[in-house]
Fold these 4 entries.
Entry 1:
Amino acid sequence: MAVKVHTPVFLAERDMDWLRDRLSPAALEKIRTHLRLFQSWVAEPALRKPSARAAVQHVLESGGTAAQFKVAVVEALAQVPGGLEALLREATEHLGDDEALEELPALDAAVDQLQCAQRSWVRFLSFHPNAPQILDSHGRQVLRLIDVGFHADNLLTVALLGLHERREDTDRSVLEGIAEAAREWTGAYYGAVRDLVESVGPTIDPADPFRTRPLADLLSLPPHDEAAATIEEMDEAIGDAIHQE
């Protein structure tokens, strides 16, 4: 998944609870260790910075530690039946289920943008008939998309950790600045995903829609960020479209 899906990762505490009965103690401790590394090397130093600009710069320069954490999480989840599915649900659906986000409108908007981008990206990789070839032929565009999404997720994660920990040594303006940067980067990520999907997506044949190639037609329909996530839902959506015709 880390190679083929490239989904940025934020693992909520509720997923740690879900995984407790499914992972070996060693695997669970590996995840917790890397989460602590992310907190101590990326999040906490950023939240202690004297200015929002310095905090954001620290997060952007801490890619190595963040990547180490995320790869460890994906590797551990791959060992658990349903583990990667839980990760996708978290990344595409459940991040916004947090009342604390109301305190930071920029962070709330960042969560929405990240989830929209994730839904579109997962839909594209899961259902596009030529996804592997497109990833190869549009390599530069894909790499930029992944890079922007990686930093967007890191900034969002740090802002969420700062919001929940409510550190006394964190200046409110620093937290707000990180949240605003997260909003900007997730917006750029969402835009990059849409640009790729729309530039390589199939086009509808208006003379014969949903008849000879329903999957391709469905893939071309906006909004790309709200498409069905399962084969069953895709089949249902295709059937509805045919019925409307």
Note: Residues 172-200 form the longest helix (29 residues).
Entry 2:
Amino acid sequence: MNSDKLFGLSTTAYRQGKIKEAYDILINNRDAYNKDTTLYYYSFTLACKLKKVKDAMHFLNEAVITLGMWYNTDFLDSDTNLDIIRDLDDYKYIYKVCKQRQIDLRFSGEKKIDIYVPETSTNKLFLMLPGNFQSLNEVKKSFNQDSIKDYIIAIPQSREFHSYLKCLWGDIKFGLKVVLEHYNEVVKEYDINKNEVILSSFAAGGNVIFKALVENALPVSKVIFFAPGISNLESFEPQIKALKNRNIKILIVCGENDSHYLPFSNHFDRLLTKYDVNHKYLILNDLGHSFPINTEEIIKQAIMYFDSSN
């Protein structure tokens, strides 16, 4: 059994109120853990809920001390399930270890980008930023050669860690620096036509793309925001207003059931409309906080919009 299936089985039982069953599913399939921070996390939190203090500390110790993983201490602080072990000396020691690794390793991510080059020659680039905690493989399931035709597809990974191997775009200035480095290298290596670049992002990745736009840091005119979670938009109104005169086209895509990100998307749409910035807004039926099911169709619509004279 792989880790994804194991996690799915356990969380299904948990949602049904079967906490002990959810825990037993994990414990009986330890061979699938393989340094998976999520599985270890649910093991010690479920143990806490079941008041299995010794077991909880065993899994936490194994994850952090034996295997060298670490958890974001803000995340640990917010989890009330852990209240039962917070006063233990062993927990306090492990917490300090996590805190130090959080400081030392935050910006230690390796340079990583996935690039697909089609067999037919092209000078077009589709650059896609994942959301927080998304792996490149997860993004590639939706944004690949089957859904995006005749484009070189580049998916860079953030180099900032929230916790062990969990990347995010927390420091937007640092994130933009990472994206600019990848963009410049890809454009040079593949002789990309800068007028044929589509810049795209999902969720938190949109904060980096937005910064690139308002600071005119990337010479792109075609941008797709999937479920953007851009905060403090009002403070950027002068820069948003200036986008009108820069020949930029923006497509916003969000699911109607995306309860957290839909309000952000609506707000972004209102401000772009207010300042007459060329954009299009798609709200997808029956979609929550995830990539569109019909990614190929959305990309086709986006390209038609970008290439139109309107």
Note: The longest helix spans residues 172-189.
Entry 3:
Amino acid sequence: MTSSRLNRFAVFAVLGLVLAGCKTASTVRITSEKPAPEQAAARSEPIFYNGKTYKLDFAPRTGGVYDMAVSGMGPKQKKDAVAVAISSLGYFACPEGQKGRLQNDPAYADAKWRMQAKCG
């Protein structure tokens, strides 16, 4: 190698080391705030309760509220329908440790118990 090639190689080597040592801006931000949980997508699930299988439909609305419908129960099974909906919402959509809470009085129509619930 000639001295001019050697000098050029040395310059590029030093330049490479300098550039490698440059620190880029970090995009990591540390905060004590927890991110808001994402709402689950609309879904239908078979729910096994008291020896029978029922169908639960739920879909997110604004404000963290879910439209819920329990099929397969009769008009006198309001308490059971609420238990299925609330416990299922807690399992499928609520952050760990939170339970579902009713937002309105359940109504029986078209062979379904319909209600709204929210995590909390």
Note: The helical segments are 3-20, 78-92.
Entry 4:
Amino acid sequence: MVFGRFKDAVSDVAETIRRAFQDPPCRSIQIRLNRPQAAFIRLLGTTCNPVAYRFEPGIGVQELLFHTVIQGQAMPFEARICREDAWAAWAAGAKICAMPVFCVGHCRRLAVPPLARSIPVRSLSLPSFRTSSRFLRDALVAPSVRGFSPQLPFPKVRRDLEAVLHLPIAIVGEDFQKLPRALNMRYTFQLVKATGENIRNLEVLGVFPVPVKGVTSLRHDPRTGCILVNLGSEAIGAARGQFILARKKDDRSFVSCFVQE
């Protein structure tokens, strides 16, 4: 009986250890992406809709009704007895009206005066031009004179060569493509011989007159095409040599050399 309980306890411990140290359950989820579908937009189209012009005959009734109105007008007739004796006097040749204005003896004869053969001309003499002079009494004031000494001030010189050497100096070079053909081939041979690079992999940036000694740092300015050089004390009085600067096309690094005389 003791061994049975011990066996059950051991089995419970084993089951507990197995459950404690077993791997966590994992589930696999299938992720399916929807296939992209291509949508299209219908092209704009035009349709023509005719206008419905329909002519329908219709019978219209016109009211032609004339309303008659009977009105009585007052038309009185009066009888009057008139007597006219002038017709008898006119037939006998009687004088009705006499107009003395139109009589021949009372009118004056009017005569039209003859036109002149020449028209008189009136001459008008223009007066001569007259000029008047005016005397100016105000005397002109003499201009004032100012004295000025054209002496230039003495220039100020500061002996500080170290400050100048610390500043970068821009050196403009010659265009490698505009050099004569013989000189171009010579510089190309010197560059290939000194660097050991293939000329097809090099992009020559220019030929610059740089001191052969005393150059501490050198930087190329792609905006202006110049090189910025920092010089040391050894560059004072040093001769200048033809310095060829080129760039590799594969890794964009710089290579350079001096042309040997």
Note: The chain has a mean pLDDT of 77.
